[in-house]
Amino acid sequence: MKKIYHQFNRILIANRGEIAVRIIKTAKEMGLETVAIYTTEEKDALHVEKADLKALMNGTRLEETYLNAHQIIALAQRYQVDAIHPGYGFLSENEVFAELCNQHNIVFIGPEARHIKMMGNKEAANKIAARCEIPLLQKINGSVAQILKGAKTLSLPIVIKASAGGGGKGMRVVHHLNELEREIKRAASEALRYFGNASVYIEEYIQNPRHIEVQILGDHHGNTVHLFERECSIQRRHQKVIEESPAPNLDNTTKQKIIEDALKLAQHIGYTNAGTVEFLLTTDQKHFFLEMNTRIQVEHPVTELITGIDIVKEQIQIAAGMPLSYQQNEIEYHGHAIEARIYAEDPSDSFAPSFGKIMGTHIPSHPHIRIDGGAQSQENLNPNFDPLLKKVIAYGQDRNQAILRLQKFLNNFALFGVESNREFILKALKDPDFQQGNYSTSFFEAKQDYLLSKTPVLSAELEIIAAAFITLKHHTKIPSDNIWNTLGYWRLYQQHQIYFEGHKLTIDLININTETITIQIDQEKPIEISCIRIEQNELSFIINEKHFWVNYLVANDGLYHIQHNGRKRIISDIPERIKRNNDTDNVEAIKTMKAPMPGRIIEIMAKEGKAIKKGDTLMVLEAMKTENSIHAWKDTVVKKIAVDKGQQVQLNQLLLETE
Known about the structure:
Layout: E1 10-13, H1 17-29, E2 33-38, H2 46-50, E3 53-56, H3 69-78, E4 83-85, H4 95-103, E5 107-108, H5 113-120, H6 122-131, E6 139-140, H7 144-151, E7 158-162, E8 172-174, H8 180-195, E9 200-204, E10 210-218, E11 224-236, E12 239-245, H9 252-269, E13 273-281, E14 287-293, H10 300-307, H11 311-319, E15 336-343, E16 345-346, E17 352-353, E18 356-357, E19 360-362, E20 369-373, E21 380-381, E22 388-396, H12 399-412, E23 414-416, H13 422-430, H14 432-435, H15 443-452, H16 459-474, H17 483-487, H18 489-493, E24 495-500, E25 503-512, E26 516-521, E27 527-535, E28 538-543, E29 546-554, E30 560-564, E31 567-571, E32 592-594, E33 599-604, E34 611-612, E35 617-623, E36 626-631, E37 636-641, E38 648-649, E39 654-658
Parallel strand pairs: 1-2, 1-4, 2-3, 4-5
Antiparallel strand pairs: 6-9, 7-8, 7-9, 10-11, 10-13, 11-12, 12-15, 13-14, 15-22, 16-17, 18-21, 19-23, 20-22, 24-25, 25-26, 26-27, 27-28, 28-29, 29-30, 30-31, 32-39, 33-35, 33-38, 34-37, 35-36, 37-39
Cofactor: biotin
Keywords: ATP-binding, Biotin, Ligase, Nucleotide-binding
Domain Biotin carboxylation: 7-449
């Protein structure tokens, strides 16, 4: 094997968000200068702030910026970098980009272009896996006509997958053959947008499998090692949400078979750098090759925490021609790690992306929690990018300890201004099946009602919410000899009514001084609030000898965002406005549809002059790398379509009119 050594002084990160910040951290520890690339809307982004140098890209759309290989190469040359780290997503699994780096004497920190071509394309990867005698599911590829013909030989349901990518993009599950052609076209269109390749294939869809993957490292000296397995079965929209290592309830025989097959595949092609071999595991412990990701994974931190190996550092050293830092017999794992991906999305609204400004955060300190994050307070979320905000990774001596530490952190972690899946993850962590390690990729579907249910407000919580509101509204350093305390001024004039989630509370402010606040809720027994301490986004006080902590944000619109014991609520002292309800008669009076979020129209099914039925998909709007279907709200006729396919739209922009 040819050995070429490189001296790196400066690297460019061809990515953004949390993974760019993660790469910058290790690069700096290695004494390397870093260059961040960004768009005009990202000038205050965290990855730009952390890098030594920043390079502005021309354009706004992904195709013009993060997917524009030639522009990135030009910036790398301008800033005289020695290497480019692609992170994950974008161009990380694009063999043309890897080869372009080589042609311009820039080292690509990843596998060789030929390995990306072999394994990045699922069809080619399946052929290699077959030669290695690794178990495979039956697959059918080719033209649309060939796939439709071959589909008749498979048992339903069938899954459609993108040949050139992963992450759930270009993936569809089809339960009826008459839906297959339409879904193939949609999957191909999505694959083309994200991976520049519209090729798709179909395969049998395994019911209730586990998703197990193996982390691989290979160098240019013939060394290949594994860093054990990860469990990635908690998913939504075919995208991972919670990952852990080691995999729970995985017997050692099955584990060794999976690891051996992963190594066999990597060694067969002489794979170099970091890669992940993924498998589906059936309920009867049979494993099938799924794909190989030729890049660093989002979930790599759980492996780093249990092995103590910095995977990004190994990537950089391998790319520089150095041998692996460890032999297989030196690699051990200790303890357990669990990662939760915090997305800007609304689980109660089909996980639709949440956009807007992050108005404030509270990140509690914890010695056993690692946070990989790219978004920060006061940042406006860009609808063009993935909604992943932060990754929270907990480490424990065993799985139970890791779960408890993650729960404790997420209970006190606050994010104000946008919706997130934090409470959804907390419920998943508390689920008995999850805690026992008995789950599969169907976990969300099986537990949907529980995971999306609203936790009722207990009477004790009403006191805490009222106390927090009044404290934030009125607490000031009033001198103890203030005459108004003596006269009872506050009781005479200070009364509030607050509203949240259907609740209405009447709060009388009886007394306030430098030490305490006394309130009465709905004419019940007075409550004394003492030992008040207010810090940025955190408030603590004592009621009836019990100490309480809440996170808060007082927004510019006068709303109070209060979070206690993991549950976030928005409090108003203005009566809640009656919201339009799709089940009420006024739906029939609505004759226009507006964009529910900023994004790009990627498909239009509705046609002017044609009848539509309630629930029909009228358009598909892409925001934050997620497709969002827009449905008809009533039976009617489309009068006018106000947008075009491919058009960028703003919040509340008119999409169509009906009769």
